[in-house]
Specification:
The chain has 2 domains: 36-173, Leucine Dehydrogenase, chain A, domain 1 (Rossmann fold), CATH 3.40.50; 188-346, NAD(P)-binding Rossmann-like Domain (Rossmann fold), CATH 3.40.50. Helices cover 43% and strands 17% of the residues. The protein contains 14 helices and 12 strands. The protein has helices spanning 8-22, 27-31, 82-98, 119-133, 152-166, 187-205, 222-233, 256-263, 284-288, 330-335, 343-346, 349-363, 369-393, 398-417; strands spanning 38-47, 53-64, 70-77, 105-111, 142-146, 214-218, 237-243, 246-249, 280-282, 294-297, 316-318, 339-341. A 7-stranded mixed sheet has the order 9-8-7-6-10-11-12. Strands 1-2-4-3-5 form a 5-stranded mixed sheet. The relative contact order is 0.14. The protein binds glutamic acid. The site of glutamic acid has 13 residues, from strand 3 and helix 12.
């Protein structure tokens, strides 16, 4: 990853400042948004399977609660750090605002490598982390969810730990839970499904064919794999995919069902061991630079930056990851006429269905998967339309369009509440 000085939180501030300037806001209007409301750093001691004790570092950050309780995932990854979690929390604030669900933004993270941990070790980290951040979370305060490296099982342990501490069952404290614990049908696929809706929407707006069009997907985690699956099912030609072990490319289109079957539901297998007739092996950076119509970064932040933006050849980029494009690359992509659908819009499907899960939990009702998917579309499509329209009207990028809507909603809520005391 290029750019040693890359600081994701500075990226957020830059985009927010640009949006505020276009909206005609004074620095006082947005000053408070530059500082996360709460930053908690915790130490997580765990007895490992070999009997030694290790201490992991964890964070929970609430960027804003102006529009509602903080909402956002928990990332388990070796590269987690304070600035990353701050940025991820702020992106959640703007994501929830752009799709107009009643939440602020938060995020958590633990510096660890889940692929090197046993299930017992991962559960111990999860439980101790949950206990450490328990004073901050709750259905009305801050609601964690899965992110990179965490999943439904982790959410089940978080829900159980919190419930044990409270002495009663609290379903609504986390979303993305196992279905048996009040998880929403459709939540596991929701981010990928939202990316699929968004890809259809942008192709239609640009007058481009969706069916048969070539697309490359970087990342085979929950978001990347389900995005590739749904785009393939809907008729796009997925020509390249990648994971931590590297990528594969096939001009005629890869066999996505076979790849997903090979990787397995828990994705314990890696693409480096996958074989398909006619495919070639590529690196993750080669995937980003492929001559494809649509590129979907669905891995980590800072993938498209000053070091490679000149070599990006896709016509459309749909950001399934959070922050895959560094702020410095945006004006260059614009100059190159590459259309970027920003993360806070394109990947909002996950948190939208998290919202549906929370709504079902607090009312003790459950919706069918078809209802969930339909309600998701009914939020994703108009949100896309609104972002498209404002970007056209202001002659700006879709990212700026999304931030104009989001920043305005957050600032209006802040003003309506006024600064306490
Ligand atoms: N981690 C996901 C995101 O970045 C989902 C967050 C949530 O559902 O609260 O949007």
């Amino acid at each position: 990853m290029a750019g040693q000085t890359y600081n994701p939180y500075d990226n957020v501030l830059k985009v927010m400042d640009d949006a505020a300037a276009l909206l005609g806001y004074s620095s006082s209007d947005i000053e408070a948004l530059k500082y996360p409301e709460r930053e908690l750093k915790v130490a997580i001691p765990v007895v490992m399977d070999d009997g030694t004790t290790r201490v992991f570092e964890g964070y929970r950050i609430q960027h804003s609660t102006s529009r509602g309780p903080a909402k956002g995932g928990v990332r388990f990854h070796p590269a987690v750090n304070l600035d990353e979690v701050k940025a991820l929390a702020a992106w959640m604030t703007f994501k929830c605002a752009v799709v107009n669900i009643p939440y602020g933004g938060g995020k958590g993270g633990v510096v660890c490598n889940p692929t090197e941990l046993s299930e017992r070790e991962l559960r111990a980290i999860t439980r101790r982390f949950t206990a450490a951040i328990a004073p901050l979370i709750g259905p009305d305060q801050d609601i964690p969810a899965p992110d990179v490296g965490s999943n439904a099982a982790v959410m089940g342990w978080m829900m159980d730990t919190y419930s044990m501490l409270k002495g009663h069952c609290v379903h609504g404290v986390v979303t993305g839970k196992p279905i048996e614990l009040g998880g929403a049908l459709g939540r596991n696929e929701a981010t990928g499904r939202g990316v699929m809706f968004t890809t259809k929407n942008i192709m239609k707006k640009l007058g481009m064919e969706f069916k048969g069009t070539d697309v490359a997907v970087q990342g085979m985690g929950n978001v990347g794999s389900i995005t590739a699956k749904l785009l393939d099912e809907e008729g796009m030609k997925v020509v390249a995919v990648s994971d931590v072990s590297g990528g594969i490319y096939k001009k005629e289109g890869l066999n996505i069902p076979a790849i997903l079957k090979f990787l397995g539901a828990d994705r314990k297998n890696l693409l480096k061991d996958y074989e398909e007739e006619g495919m070639t092996r590529i690196s993750n950076s080669e995937l980003l630079e492929l001559d494809v119509t649509v590129l979907i970064p669905a891995a980590l932040e800072n993938q498209i930056n000053a070091s490679n933006v000149d070599r990006i050849r896709a016509k459309v980029i749909v950001e399934a990851a959070n922050g895959p494009t560094a702020a410095e690359a945006d004006p260059i992509l614009k100059e190159k006429n590459i259309v970027v659908v920003p993360d806070i819009l394109a990947n909002a499907g996950g948190v939208v269905v998290s919202y549906f899960e929370w709504v079902q939990n607090i009312q003790s009702v459950s919706w069918t998967e078809a209802e969930v998917n339909e309600k998701l579309k009914n939020i994703m499509d108009p949100s896309f339309e609104a972002v498209w329209n404002i970007a056209q009207e202001k002659n700006t990028t879709l990212r700026m369009g999304a931030y104009l809507i989001a920043v305005e909603r957050v600032v209006k809520a802040k003003k309506a509440r006024a600064i306490w005391p």
